[in-house]
Amino acid sequence: MLSPRVLPARDTIEGDVRRALTEDVGSGDVTADLLPAHARARARVITREAAVLCGSAWFDECFRQLDASTRIEWRAADGERVAAGSVLCQIEGTARTLVTGERTALNFLQTLSGTATTTAAYVDAARGTRTTVLDTRKTLPGLRAAQKYAVRVGGGENHRIGLFDAVLIKENHIAAAGSIAAAVLRARALHPGLLVETEVENFAELREALAAGADRIMLDEFELHELAQAVAEVGGRVPLEVSGSVALDRVRAIAETGVDYVSIGALTKHVRAVDLSMRIEIVDA
After folding, report:
1. d(CA 259, CA 182)
2. What pairs with residue 277 in β-bridges?
3. Is the pLDDT at 12 greater than 80, yes or no?
4. Which of 170, 210, 211, 257 is the most exposed place for a label (fewest CB within 10 A)?
């Protein structure tokens, strides 16, 4: 498991920002041209709501790529819970740089803070149980590493990063292979070093997955009483994961059944950006 404080690779962050700035700025900020070229400005970023801060590295990189002389002083760090009205950072640089970078930088900060804040709510709901909150691959295209970092900042853990680092056998794979046992056997032969997880939809499939030696079993759309029964039947022989229809108001009840993991697509798929504001003041025209 990656530490919450381990950022994605530097070139990943740079690439995320480069694509975003190219998309927004294009051939140049024609409105920023209205400002004097050498005018200096400062700005403050304020959150209008309580949140878990995340994304400062992407925010910094936006202004670094526009003008490396821009200075940013953070008053909160990634992972910190901030109250509504809090000043998150102060920025000083050319006025053109600040107005050009404002939207792209805030887009990263508000989106990743939204992911971290949502994750923290689910983690808080499961607190005190044995259940770990996981993300899924339902991320914004091109921002998987960023959003999975935000999940860790919010107190969750990452499921597989992509299709390459774990085997997850689902309904279509089982149908193609002929059975759960055949799919697990084939996965072991092809990828002996990877975790092999299989989805099950009933107790017959659960028992087949156990007998086949899966490393982890995903209980799909099981009722609460069935989850508790599955935990008792498996008896800790392999970790159990819950997936499907996991809303915030159900997480506590699911966790109290004793399952090991709950994977939640809503952490990254349904994310609502945190409401942030950047207020700019010209200090030297």
Report:
1. 26
2. 46
3. yes
4. 211
Decide if pLDDT at 2 tops 90. Answer: no
207-222 burial, b if ≥16 CB within 10 A, otherwise e? ebbbebebbbbbbbeb
Tell me the HSE value of 83 on the side-chain side, using a 13 A CA sphere.
1
10-25 and 144-153 helices, crossing angle to 10°:
120
**How many other C-beta atoms are found inside a 10 Å radius of the C-beta of residue 73?**
10
Burial class (CB in 10 A: 0-12, 13-18, 19+), 194: middle
Comparing CA positions, the residue from 114, 77, 46, 21 lying closest to residue 276 is 46
Q: Give the model confidence (pLDDT) of 198-256 as tens digits.
A: 999 999 999 999 999 999 999 998 999 999 999 999 999 999 999 988 999 999 999 99
DSSP structure string for 45-109? EEESS-EE---HHHHHHHHHHH-TT-EEEESS-TT-EE-TT-EEEEEEEEHHHHHHHHHHHHHHH
How many Å apart are CA 253 and CA 11, to the nearest integer? 41
| Residue type for position 73 | E
Asked if residue 227 lies in contact with residue 98, where contact means CB atoms within 8 angstroms, the answer is: no
Pairing mode, if any, of strands 87-94 and 71-74? Answer: antiparallel
Using DSSP, how many helices (H) and how many strands (E) does the chain show? Answer: 10, 12
Give the chain's length: 285
Which region, left, alpha or beta, applies to residue 218 given φ > 0 means left and ψ of -120 to 50 means alpha?
A: beta
The pTM score is 0.95
- List, as own/partner pairs, every contact residues 16-20 make where C-beta atoms lie below 8 angstroms and the sequence separation is at least 24, other chains included: 16/58, 16/61, 16/108, 16/142, 16/143, 16/145, 16/146, 17/58, 17/61, 17/62, 17/65, 17/104, 17/108, 18/65, 19/142, 20/62, 20/104, 20/107, 20/108
With beta carbons less than 8 A apart as the criterion, state whether 246 and 5 touch: no
Active site residues: 103, 138, 170, 199, 220
